[in-house]
Amino acid sequence: MGKDHTRLKAQEGVHEFGSKCAKLNYLFRELKDNDKGVDGEIELTQSSGVKNPFIAVQIKARSKVKITKKNEISLTVTSQNIEYWRNYGRPVILILFVDNRTPMYWVRVDNLKSRTFKIPITNQFDETTLSEFLRIISEYYTKIAMNLDIKDVSVVLSEFGFVGKLEDITNPLVASLNEAMNFIERKEYDEACMIYEALAKIYKESSSVFYNLAIILLKLDKIDEAFEVADVMYRKFPNNYETYEIMGSAFASIGEYEGAENQYAKALFIKSDNCAVWNLMGLVHYWDGEFGKAIQDFKKSLSFKETESVLMNLALCLTANLDYIDAVTYYDKVISLNNLSYDAYNNKGIVLKALWKLEDAIEAFEKAIAINLDNLYALCNLAFLLKDLGEDERALHYYQLAVEISPQNNQIHLNIGLLFCRLNNYQYASLHFEKIKKFIQINSVKTGEVGLVDIGYKVAYLITIDFSSGVAEVIDVENSSQLALFENFSLHMEGTSNSGEEIGSIQQYITPFEPSNNIIKGLIKRNEKVQQRKNNKMNKGGFWVIGATDDIDNYAFAIFSIEDENYYNKIIKEIRRKIELDYEMNDKLELSIINDVELKVLRTVARDSHQQIEIRFENRLFQQVYFNINFNGYYLAGIATGDIKKTYPFLLSENDLSMSVNFTCSGSDGRSRGFIIEDIKRISVNKKWE
Fold first, then answer.
1. How many angstroms separate the CA atoms of 620 and 644, rounded?
2. pLDDT for the residue numbered 534
3. Residue 230 is inside which H or E element, if any?
4. From start to end of 172-253, where are the E strands?
5. C-beta separation of 437 from 467 below 8 A
6. Contact (CB, 8 A) for 56 and 29
7. Measured distance CA(621)–CA(485) in Å, rounded
8. What is the greatest pairwise CA distance in the chain?
9. Coil, strand, or helix at residue 635?
10. What pLDDT score does 599 carry?
């Protein structure tokens, strides 16, 4: 029975992980033979031009975990697991699954140094993992050696004592060197390695032979052998900067960044104007998360020689450091050197989107697509942006091009299905949902219905799919533009406070719900609508105040203060209708004195004992916190600038946080009204922000 329970728990973990991947735009492929230590692989479908965007996944399911005082979870694995992960051939992460109410935690494991390791609880598998996964993939596959240049054949020959033009030398050595270079150009490194290993035994005093051999070994991921060659170079050529460059590259290949930094520093001491080593130093700092140092290193390299690869590295580092404006400048410099750089246009589009220059972002993605129509990244990035803007037909066009390239991509089929729902073509939508039904989480076991929330900048839809007949059938599509990120609330923030009885309090204006039956396309009419709302937002809308009491329990609250009494009554009526509440008091009159002013408050207190209310906070769209409160299908949402740690620090203080929601309004009869819902436990917090 114990083994059966463990297997069922593991199966549940794999299913929940697959569903989570679909929501995060990751494509998850479960492996049939997963006994050795890998359950499947994920593909990053929205990566920034990264080649081989795959990460292997091992899912560990636990009934419960213990979090230490340092906010870490300790796990122990076998030596066989570690050896398997190290030699798997791709980066490997471990996912820790407890249940569908607890965040999934992750940690990289293909570089473990001991059987027992820690998982910080800040490492949650959510929207913030994309940049981390891109960095891991870049570190794994590039491993610095991929950025090193093989020394030209003529340089090697000059150390053998040959003179004259290269084409005039016809001895077997030249033929072997040229053959090796041809192998290298075709990335056939095993064959090139055999030639250079033979040459190293004959020409023992040629540093270039050992240098090239070491690079090839690093490209083959033969790290131990590369270290042996580096050791030979250290003994034979202690005054050559290449010796320390190779040693640094070997250290970097195993993630020993401090050792790599020390070796590169020695190389630069010998040859301080070497742009290649400055670039390698920058890569080490970038992979180690020291973006400030990396930026200075890349700029130093560029001061000696401006190359496309270093400009691109600097642009990527600036992007990771959230210096978006400077990043655009350097992507433009890459483009000025190579106007056919697909990655530069695609990455520039991603950064422009972060800067809210959406039309410019669209143009950048379109230029990338014009360069390479067969590359999935810009197609999906452009289609997703157009979909967010409500330009459904244009988005569908690009997604249909993408699905021809990747016909098994679940995320593409999901978005095509959502777009067909918007365009009232439920038959085609059902066909695409049918293709991915096993990746969609079933919310209701009894009815077999699935609810999908499709939220963009200007549009939002609630879609219901029925699987009870065994096939996907779209049964309801509700245009709910009031849930869109920008459509029906402004982004004005009054301020935050971290002192006194409230911590992290924030005021956020929000306008009333005004559902529209039309699909809103683009942002053309946005300014007009915002201008119209300025005159009535305080009369018909209200504002949020979210914070916590500074006491032992650290009790959190969300207050929605409303000016319009009719709007207040509408909200309370909807909440009463949607959810089942237990009432302690019903319209009890209380007398309060605030600043010598006597206030009469008609207050209702209810309890969410059936756990029907959910409050979600998540980092979204670069340095903005999106929150919504779901009253069993009736939503109130908002956005605040800043990450969760700074905007809502109280959310990070307790693992089991209780929260209340309080609606207030000044009535026409001179009495204030308050409707308080207590004991809300379903709080989802995306805690991690890098």
1. 10
2. 38
3. helix 223-236
4. none
5. yes
6. no
7. 10
8. 105
9. strand
10. 65
- Residue 180 carries which DSSP code? H
Three-state SS string across 300-312, please? Answer: HHHHHCCCHHHHH
Inter-residue contact 410 to 439 (CB < 8 Å): yes
Q: Which residues on neighbouring strands pair with residue 591, listed in sequence order?
A: 600
Which pLDDT value is given to residue 297? 93
What long-range pairs does 245-248 form, CB within 8 A, spacing at least 24?
245/148, 245/274, 245/276, 245/277, 245/280, 246/211, 246/214, 246/215, 248/144, 248/277, 248/280, 248/284
Which tokens belong to 431?
Answer: 């066909």
Residue 205 tokens read as 């005093």
Copy the structure tokens of residue 60: 């560990």
Return the pLDDT at 592. Answer: 60
CA atoms within 13 A on the CB side of 579: 24
Q: What is the pLDDT of residue 371?
A: 92
- Report residue 664 as tokens: 């207030």
Place of tokens 């033009």: 165
Alpha carbons 467 and 449: distance in angstroms, whole number: 6
- Please tell me the distance from the alpha carbon of residue 233 to that of residue 208, in angstroms, as a whole number: 10
**DSSP code at position 500:** T
Task: Centre a 10 Å sphere on the Cβ of residue 69 and count the other Cβ atoms it contains.
Answer: 5
599-655 pLDDT, tens digit each: 677 778 888 877 788 887 876 544 567 777 888 777 777 666 667 777 777 777 655
Which pLDDT value is given to residue 192? 80
pLDDT at 299: 94
Task: Return d(Cα 634, Cα 308) in angstroms, integer.
Answer: 51
Helices (H), 237-388: 241-253, 257-270, 275-287, 291-304, 308-320, 324-337, 342-354, 358-371, 376-388
| CA atoms of 471 and 621, how far apart (whole Å) | 35
d(CA 417, CA 426): 8
Which segments within 400-552 are labelled E, that is strand? Answer: 449-455, 460-466, 473-479, 493-497, 505-510, 542-548
Total residue length of the chain = 690
Angle between helices 207-219 and 241-253 (to 10 degrees): 10
pTM for the model stands at 0.52
Please name which of 426, 479, 425 lies closest in space to residue 455, comparing C-alpha atoms: 479
The whole-angstrom separation of Cα 551 and Cα 660 is: 15
Rounded-to-10 torsion of CA 561, 567, 568, 573: -140
Q: Amino acid identity of 202?
A: I
Low-confidence ranges of the chain (pLDDT < 50): 1, 144-147, 165-170, 442-446, 488-540, 552, 621-622, 687-690
| Amino acid sitting at position 17 | F
Q: Burial, 65: exposed, middle or buried (Cβ in 10 Å; 0-12, 13-18, 19+)?
A: middle
* Cα angle value 112/118/124 (rounded, 5°): 105
**By 3-state DSSP, what share of the chain in percent is helix, strand and coil, each rounded to 5?**
45, 25, 30
Q: Tell me the helices (H) and strands (E) count for the chain, helix number first.
A: 24, 22
> What is the pLDDT, as a whole number, of residue 519?
24
Q: How many CB atoms lie within 10 A of CB 164?
A: 8
Q: Please report which helix (H) or strand (E) contains residue 22, including its range.
A: helix 2-23
